[in-house]
């Protein structure tokens, strides 16, 4: 079985004694990831009571003291985004009113991240609105993974630690028997070129190709042409998220037409809105490699899907934030 890299660079101090002032609580969006993070840190999740009233309103009560503690709340705002976002806000408020020393919102997947600018008149910038809500609810810091665009960091008036899922995926690809000279990294659109270039540089400085597409509307994409050569190569498509998989599927069709020997899809966030599973499992991809920032239920899994865990990465980052150590050095 494949073993992921251990990111605990501070293992001796982290394993000997977790300070009593560190608390980790999980929302209902991704409890499996929260458990893995707590396991990495050698501690248990904090006790928290959540229930919904008959009218749909949410009730949150911490079941242990957090007075004077560094509290980390693990809650991706994945679908249902509004429900999970509201749950996070109420958790933050509960911790603030319980006199937590610091509150860090650990958001492995940041919903509304794509609404980061106005494309047409009279549109909202929902990413900025959500950032304001999290800040005013009482969070002191945000820990996010692979934000859709770097500018979203500037929407927060509190510190943001932005970590990347790339090392986890790169480590997995390095374990596969693919000749480095046969690999070409593909950006599924022009907007993702910087991300794909950084990925290619770390993947034995692989060559880069770009899919040029025109988007017809929300959740729709039309592939136009390919910039670069993939003939006889193993194409590795890299994106920050897979939603309906329209971009990935049409890009893979183009790559096969251009002579690619095999196509891999790599993405940190797998939202997998319908009909993503049908598109990804239809034979276009040799393998679809994602992480567990968004939980993937059993009925959405298929043979080509590989789910990697970012728990060690997030756990190490949490420890460093709590210990006032450098986070950026993880990626150097």
Automatic annotation (TrEMBL):
<dbReference type="GO" id="GO:0004749">
    <property type="term" value="F:ribose phosphate diphosphokinase activity"/>
</dbReference>
<dbReference type="InterPro" id="IPR037515">
    <property type="entry name" value="Rib-P_diPkinase_bac"/>
</dbReference>
<dbReference type="InterPro" id="IPR029099">
    <property type="entry name" value="Pribosyltran_N"/>
</dbReference>
<keyword id="KW-0067">ATP-binding</keyword>
<dbReference type="InterPro" id="IPR005946">
    <property type="entry name" value="Rib-P_diPkinase"/>
</dbReference>
<dbReference type="GO" id="GO:0016301">
    <property type="term" value="F:kinase activity"/>
</dbReference>
<keyword id="KW-0479">Metal-binding</keyword>
<protein>
    <recommendedName>
        <fullName>ribose-phosphate diphosphokinase</fullName>
        <ecNumber>2.7.6.1</ecNumber>
    </recommendedName>
</protein>
<keyword id="KW-0547">Nucleotide-binding</keyword>
<dbReference type="GO" id="GO:0000287">
    <property type="term" value="F:magnesium ion binding"/>
</dbReference>
<feature type="domain" description="Ribose-phosphate pyrophosphokinase N-terminal">
    <location>
        <begin position="22"/>
        <end position="138"/>
    </location>
</feature>
<keyword id="KW-0545">Nucleotide biosynthesis</keyword>
<dbReference type="Pfam" id="PF14572">
    <property type="entry name" value="Pribosyl_synth"/>
</dbReference>
<dbReference type="GO" id="GO:0006015">
    <property type="term" value="P:5-phosphoribose 1-diphosphate biosynthetic process"/>
</dbReference>
<dbReference type="InterPro" id="IPR000836">
    <property type="entry name" value="PRTase_dom"/>
</dbReference>
<comment type="similarity">
    <text>Belongs to the ribose-phosphate pyrophosphokinase family.</text>
</comment>
<keyword id="KW-0418">Kinase</keyword>
<dbReference type="GO" id="GO:0006164">
    <property type="term" value="P:purine nucleotide biosynthetic process"/>
</dbReference>
<dbReference type="GO" id="GO:0005524">
    <property type="term" value="F:ATP binding"/>
</dbReference>
<dbReference type="Pfam" id="PF13793">
    <property type="entry name" value="Pribosyltran_N"/>
</dbReference>
<dbReference type="GO" id="GO:0002189">
    <property type="term" value="C:ribose phosphate diphosphokinase complex"/>
</dbReference>
<keyword id="KW-0808">Transferase</keyword>
<keyword id="KW-0460">Magnesium</keyword>
<dbReference type="GO" id="GO:0005737">
    <property type="term" value="C:cytoplasm"/>
</dbReference>
<dbReference type="InterPro" id="IPR029057">
    <property type="entry name" value="PRTase-like"/>
</dbReference>
